[in-house]
Structure formats: C-alpha cells, structure tokens
Amino acid sequence: QVQLVQSGREAKKPGASVKVSCRASGYTFSHFGITWVRQAPGQGLEWVGWISAYSGDTSYAQKVQGRATMTTDTSTSTAYLDLRGLRSDDTAVYYCAKSQDYFDTSGPSPKGFRRLEAWGQGTLVTVSS
Amino acid sequence: SSELTQDPAVSVALGQTVRMTCQGDSLRNYYASWYQQKPGQAPVLVMSGKNNRPSGIPDRFSGSTSGNTASLTITGAQAEDEGDYYCNCRDGSGHHPFGGGTKLTVL
User: How far from chain centre, in Å, is Cα A35?
Assistant: First the structure.
C-alpha cells in the first residue's frame, strides 16, 4: 500500500534552516507529484507548494517563495522540503502528500482538479529562540 | 486570507443530513477536493472532482459544484464523521490554497 514516511521533529532557532524528508513507497514515485502542506498549532491547513517528481517543476506559496526549496531524489523515492530563514510563524506540522492531477470531462463543463491521495504522518517544526 | 471560504462550524444530529460549502471564484474553473482531519491525525481525502469518492470512503459522502460553490454532503451522519473538513482548489496562479476549514460536530 502507499506509504509516505516523514523525518522526525525539529527544533530550530529563528534564522536557521530545516530540511524535512518524505520517503514514499507502494507506488511509482516519479509518476506523481508531492505537495507540501503545513498546519500551525490550532490552525487550518496551509498549502506550501508542489513538486513534480517527474520533471522537477515546482510551485511555491507566496509566504515561502524565496525561502523554500523542494527537491526529489527518484533513486530513493524521497522528497525534501528545505526552508531557510525560519521565523516563529513557520512553527507548524509539515505534511507531504502524494498528489495527482485529473481532468473530469463527465459534466457539461470539463474541469481539472488535484487529489492529495495519501499523506505522510507529519513533521513538527518548532522555531523558537 | 483564504481565497476559499468555508463556514467555521456546522453541527448535525446523528443520522441526519449535513451540507458543508466552499465558495470561491476558482471553483467556476476547477473542481475542489475535500479532506477530513481528526484531532492529532493527518488529513484524509474524502471527495474530489465532480463527485469522486476514494475507495474506503462511505457512500454517505457526496460532492457537487454549482457556480462558485462546492458542496460536501453527508447523508445520515455518523459519530465517526466528526472532524474538520477542508476544501482545496487550484487558483488562477496555479497555486492550490485550502479553505479555512469547517468543524463538524455530530450531536
């Protein structure tokens, strides 16, 4: 079955960097994307960005643009999120998710959508002085 | 602020029907996906596209879209359906923001 296993919790000081890993199994890693999502304590889900494991194309949320780098290693089926210049508001549980784009033509107006089909267990990143 | 708007909280009596909505201009051009999250757990996909349920999700869950509003309906809500529900949809810049989430309470 599909599994995404993330690295362990991290405690960092403001201004530092963190690298979270997400090892996938149970599917052909390079055929899908990986979406990163975070959730601050007591808050909702926040989309962080996406990477295609096939092409390496990326898309980042404005809040992390310029500070985040997403990469993949297809030889180990692992995705990475590198976040630099950490701030206290980066404190959150970070999730990776296997993502796939679809196009539904069954209705009168065909539309696309993305499914986050399986999620990692989450990695708590705490930023505090 | 989120580009997708959800009601913060909804309640439903056990066995009754509840509809949760997600509003946003991007829903005119793209379908939403819906995720259920229970305390201390990772989210789980419960609905996507026009009305596509992943395997393992009970058929009491259904989805629909009209104009700028996507809906997730639970027909005959069960106690185990309690949790937070988030919609997610592509926007015009190719990003995929989440709605603010709806906390569902089953009474």
Answer: 4
